[in-house]
Amino acid sequence: MTDLRNKWLAVLDQYCLNADRPDSNRYWSTRLDTASTDELREIQNEKLRVSAQYCYLHIPFYRRKFDRIGLRPDDIKSVDDLILIPITTRGEMAEDLANNPPWGAYTAVDDNVWRERGWQIFATSGTTAQPRIFRYTEFDRKMWAWTDARAMWAMGFRPMRDVAMLAFGYGPHVWLWGVHYALNLMRIPIITAGGLDSRVRARFIEQFQPTILACTPSYALYLAGVMRGMNIDPASTSIRRLFCAGEPGFSIPATRSLIESTWNAELHEFYGCTEAAPSAGGYTCSVVAGQKGIPVSTHLMADTQIWETVDPNTLQPAGQGQPGLSVVTNLCSEASPQLRFLVGDFTTLTWDRCECGRTHPRALGGFRGRADDMLNVRGVTLFPSSVEDAVRRVPGVGEEFQIILSIENNLDVLTVEIEASPDIPPHRYVDLARLAETEIRSRCELRPVINVLPYGTLPKTDFKAKRLKDLRKSLPL
Predict the structure, then answer these.
(1) CA 179 from chain center: how many Å?
(2) Cut 0.70: pTM above it
């Protein structure tokens, strides 16, 4: 078992090129970032062959999964054989955790490994299931820093020019821990602002002049409102790049436009999940973010992960160029090299080369929302992000909003609560409601009920905003 673990880590080290510094101003690793499709496929094949054996031997969850269908690790010889491995869902992991508390049996870290070279525990947010705990190792920290640095290099973050402020309560959440160590690797100074009051964070920006602000999209808008209340114009500050994660932002046109115009800054984002893609699962590049009119897309790092899309009903591979749910196989982790984990966001994949020169696959249009979040209201299917796109287009609406679904007279009712901006007097709330209703009807093909609330009524958060209340689920059958 020790020999196989060492073999797996050696393969990961073999392809960890430019581990300590970039080799050009354009790419962190020119050889990897511009590798041909055939070269990337060979890297994936070599890693996958060892990964299948490693997961079978060191992760009881996968050993049971293989044995249940008579699949042997040696059956997995290339990416073409990946389809032989059943997809893993959050529900399966939650059940495994319930049967094997407190850690579950879905990682390759047992108590001995944890005591010998454990790094930190992380947890899922619990938005779709019971939070699951993951123990990651020192080796994982190194891989996170390297992959995140490659992604942030693509965003245009540079030493000797940039200073980053991380306005996020780190907690057990994966995103900013990896970003923190990657910024260290990139030699970009950090202003740590986790756990601070928003007014203090505003003063930090004013006094210490960071060029990068890392936070959720919701918090970027909320902090801007706080600053305006302090007579600080966000657009006139030193912030030139906003780096967001945790919620859709870059892929929602109105949200992206609002954030960028509010701060007079370029918006970037990471995409991933705690289970299998916590390190730069997806990322934006400076070309797509910096040039208006270029279709939105999210880069995926093919030498460290294998991304697929599957049909939401059958979980079979989606056809080329067809939308489907995102599935990832992690090829860069000691602790959690998950095989075909269903992340579950809708997107369409392409291998067409990006204008930035990177050759890896991209998610066209970004990731538009998880299947778990998809709503069916009076026969119309939509994502909460569609409602957000409409709300953000209405002048005079504050940063927060909430979607409430209920049933009246056996019919679904879509209620959207919005906050008025501080400068909107109450007598104009009727006009604001009318504008919001018109925008949502035109974009979502549903007539909503609009409730306009005073600014500051809805709760604020610097983590993932929870904007949906589906009261229909609590009704008796």
Answers:
(1) 13
(2) yes
Other Cβ atoms less than 10 A from the Cβ of 145: the count is: 23
**Residue (of 378, 375, 368, 332) closest to 347 by Cα position:** 368
Compute the average pLDDT of residues 303-328: 93
Q: Which amino acid is at 466?
A: K
Q: Read out DSSP for 15-47?
A: T-TTSSS-SSSS-SSHHHHT--HHHHHHHHHHH
3 state SS of 123 = strand
Q: Count other C-beta atoms under 10 Å from residue 258's C-beta.
A: 22
Please, what's the largest Cα pairwise distance for the chain? 73
CA pair distance 216, 166, nearest whole angstrom: 10
Q: Write down the residue that tokens 């790419």 correspond to.
A: 27
Instruction: Name the band, by pLDDT with cuts 50, 70 and 90, for residue 475.
Output: very low
* Cα–Cα distance for residue pair 87/310, rounded to 1 Å: 10
Assess whether the previous peptide bond of 22 is cis (omega < 30° from 0). no
Q: Provide the pairing of β-strand 266-271 with 212-215.
A: unpaired
Q: Which of 177, 176, 178, 89 is nearest to 132 (CA)?
A: 89
Q: How far apart, in Å, are the Cα atoms of 27 and each of 48, 68, 158, 425?
A: 25, 44, 12, 51
Q: Say if residues 391 and 401 touch (Cβ distance below 8 Å).
A: yes
Predicted confidence at residue 83, as pLDDT, reads 97
Nearest to 328 by CA among 35, 7, 6, 44: 44
Q: Which residues pair with 446 in a beta bridge?
A: none
**Given a cut of 60, is residue 320 above it in pLDDT?**
yes
Q: Which two tokens stand for residue 132?
A: 């699951």
Contact between residue 182 and residue 152 where contact means Cβ atoms under 8 Å apart: yes
Over residues 171-224, the pLDDT tens digits come to 888 888 999 999 999 999 999 998 899 999 999 999 999 999 999 898 999 899
Q: At what angle do helices 2-14 and 37-58 cross, to 10 degrees?
A: 160
Nearest-angstrom CA–CA distance, 283 and 297: 9
- Cβ atoms of 324 and 311 within 8 Å: the answer is yes
C-beta neighbour count of 472 within 10 angstroms? 14
Q: What is the pLDDT of residues 229-255, one digit of tens each?
A: 999 999 999 999 999 988 888 988 999
Calculate the CA 98 to chain-centre distance. Answer: 26
User: Parallel, antiparallel, or unpaired: how do β-strands 297-300 and 305-310 relate?
Assistant: unpaired
